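Purpose: get a first structural picture of the assembly so the mutagenesis plan has something to point at.
Setup: two entries, given in the order below. No constraints added.
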Amino acid sequence: MTATMRTATTVAARAVGVTKVYGSGEAKVTALDGVSVDIERGRFTAIMGPSGSGKSTLMHCLAGLDDVDGGEVFVGDTRVTGLKDKGLTDLRRMKVGFIFQQFNLLPTLTAEENIVLPLAIGGRKVDREWFDTVIDTVGLRDRLSHRPTQLSGGQQQRVACARALVSRPEVVFADEPTGNLDSTSGAEVLGFLQRSAQEFGQTVVMVTHDANAASYADRVIFLADGRIVSELVEPTAEVVLDTMKHLDGVIAR
Amino acid sequence: MIKATLKSLMARKLRLLLSGLAVVLGVMFVSGSFVLTDTLDRSFTSLFSSVYTGVDAQVTAKPKLEGGEGGPDYAVQSLPASTLDTVRGVDGVRAVTGDVIGSARAIGKNGKVLTTSGAPRVGDAWGEDLSGQRVLREGRAPTADNEVVLGGFLAKSGGFSVGDDVAVLTAAPKETFEVVGIFGYQGGRDSLGGEMSLSFSPATAHRVLLGEPDTYSSITVQAADGVSQDVVRDRVAAAVGADVQVKTGAELAKAQTDAIGEGLKFFNYILLGFAGIALFVGTFIIFNTFSIIVAQRTKELALMRAMGASRKQMMVSVVLEALVIGVIASVVGLGAGVGVGALLATLFATFGGGSLQLAAVGLPAAAVISSFAVGILVTMAASVFPAVRASRIAPVAAMREAATPDRPLTKPTVAGAVLSAAGGALLGVGLANAVLWMVFSGILVAFLGVALLTPLISKPVVAVIGGLLSWSMPGTLGRRNSARNPRRTAITAAALMVGIALITGVSIILTSATASITKVADTQISADLIISGEQQATFEPAVLDAVKATPGVESAFGFYSDYAVVNGEQQYLQAITDFSAWQRLFGLKATAGSFDGAAGRTVAVAEETAKEKGLGVGSAVTVQLSKGEQQTYTVAVVYAKNGAMDGIQLSAAAAVDFSQAKLTDGFAKAAAGTSVADVQKRIEPLFADNPEVSVQDRSAYVKQQAAQLDTVLLMVQILLALAILIAVLGVINTLALSVIERTRELGLLRAIGMRRSQIMRMITVESVVISVFGALLGLLVGTGLGVATVEALKDQGITELGFPWTQMGTYLAVAAVVGVVAAILPAIRAARLNVLNAISYE
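Result (structure tokens, whole complex):
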């Protein structure tokens, strides 16, 4: 089962020569400087880099949350660059899932309602079997009728993960998903993201500055000054940390 | 600290603009009212001083009655020519004219009587004009019996020119005259103040206006040089004796100005009342805005506390913010009010008769003082509670996750129940004893009480309303959002409630009045045809005799109406041509004495009135009418009052001494087996010469009466529209603040695939839920107010309770539309949010 899913290792998202510039004149900042990267389908990819390296910008551009000043972005076979609001909305509805550092659950909805919200918005039916699988994986079965305020931070983030997964998007983008969690809860969430790639073939892209978090990924891409400077495959935390230190050194020099 | 306050005020100017706007509109209403009435007051003062230019003193017969309001415009009794001679001989009198003045209504080319909007329609004798203001523009003076000259305003309104024929109604039956000239006034004016005037030859004037030759309605005196008005008045008064009164031109101008001034003052009170309602609603909005802002700024305020700001400083910071808004809003509102007042004065002068010369628009001190007082007080008062709340924020809140804790609703609910009960009690006592201030303050307190109860009510009601609208995900989210801050939703809805409750209350009272009229007409009046006219329209008693003689008429009677002093008390009453026909056609029941066979000077009294005045059958009553001497009448019958008749009525013998011995109303009953429509067709030609009077069947008559009430309702609706508009601003404001507060959520919804149109729908649902909730509250409270008032007015003839279902439904529908409209701007704003910025919004 797992094997059949992984045979289709093609590209789930792709950036080609993406450039992103903020401001103009003196205050001009080049956040991305001709970045090209392929995100492989069914794998867990981490994007790392120091503050201001452009890692978040890269993710936002890949997800269609931000437009690019140069180059092209694709999600699956959709060309994201140039899409108008309606096209972008469709993309977010059908092909993309998000997990944020701030959880971003709707306080007026229960956990279950939050999880199925993307489907409800798009007027799609909930695949009960898949829903059950996701719920059991994140371990929220007994919390479904709770409101976000009645849940711990870790539980809230697991609801957010389930929400991202339930619509089976092409790619799940996670922006510092463990930034607001203690280490135990963070480990749970990371483990869950790892399993969804390994067991369900879900493509996951995660931005993080935490070496330990990055070590859960199949592949780590390092950004500095808006460029991809390094890449690791199936790394350990130590290796990631070393690479980071090296990068800091490069920048310091 | 003050600097920080002002800075935060500047940073949130958009959010405060809407709440400021609520105050601006209210203050505008206040200052506009003052500016309007002040301008009109000065215009009328100058009008009347110009009317009495060249009049040093005026001699008239002393009226038998005090000038009752709505009484005749002209001297009822005339002066003999001998008085003119006496006055002419008085030392210090330079010139004298005998005036012949009376009501004269020209009939337009379409056969309808030409009307002014309140200014007199008057005829006089063309002759020497002591004021020197009249100017003959074209043609010549009237000399023959059938000639007339028209005032410019009348000629223009009726489209008459020299050579045309014009039919005129006066004290005499309709007559047709030839227009031989047209006159105006100095300065190219068509009239002095919107009046329609025409002049006959002196002989004709005597005949048609006064009914007899050699008499005058007044005598105008001009003093010789060096003799003051007061001196000439006193000398003339000494010469003419006690039955005649003399007044100086200045006194007359002042009396007329004062009479108009009284009316304007009343008008001003009404406008200010509505301004008060608008400001009351504005208070809700400001209160809500400050509450929301304080809640949103919890972290910032807590941080200030953590850094050492005192509680007092926190309070001062919020109140100071209110002060700044209050001052700015008052200034803007005052300015806008001057504009609105000037505009309304111009409209009044234009549509109110054409040629009222408007005085320059001024800025009365009352407008300035009340604008600032009201604008600043309202804003500050509304900010006190939020300010106290701000001062209670604990410094530790700076460290906590910003969340709006669900505070318990016990306190406001208890306070609301107490206030509602107190308001209701005050209203009840006020209505029962007809104490106006108690009624108004009762309503006000009840509104506050209900407003405090609304958060509690809002939960279930909003769930139900929302349930109807949440067939899709955006709808569900909108519904949940509106249930999220019960206080916020409740206060926003309560602001809308006030306007809708008042409109509903008034509608119920008026509908009940209409229902009562209908009931009276259907169950008590058995007359089939009702002859009545526009205000002060009359018809000859001979015509009533002709009605009686018409084939198919079983019986008919009519009445004369005038003021009279009965046992020392002035009142408006009727003289009835035929007591027994009256009894039958109005379904009256005698409780003592009899309607039949009453002859001579007799009186009919309703039972309650008899009890009040201590009268019974056989009692003597003294009656002073407009003319003649005081007479003694005898009570012939005491009857049980019904919806159609109440008070005191005189027998027909009194009519000769009424100011006009002509009938104001007539009633006829068709003989059994005769078609009412046929009888109506036969009677109508009798009134062909009198277009002011119409013959209607019962249902048409009731409809006409109801139509007058509809006009009242329309006026109230227009005046309350501002209160509703302010409430709409409140809905917009609340939504706009909520959109800002929920920026992150909106960003998330967009990120997970919500379309712009869905976001807009979500906000629209929230808005409609709030508006419909407010309207439902308003309908409920308004029904309470209306029913209570109708109950209290039972003795005044409103016996039926009627519900204006269509109107109530309309108000609800309007509220839904209002909700949609109010959502437009906040929804666009929400839909346009940049997803990325929104989701990282702190």
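Residues 219 and 233 of chain A are 4 Å apart (CA to CA).
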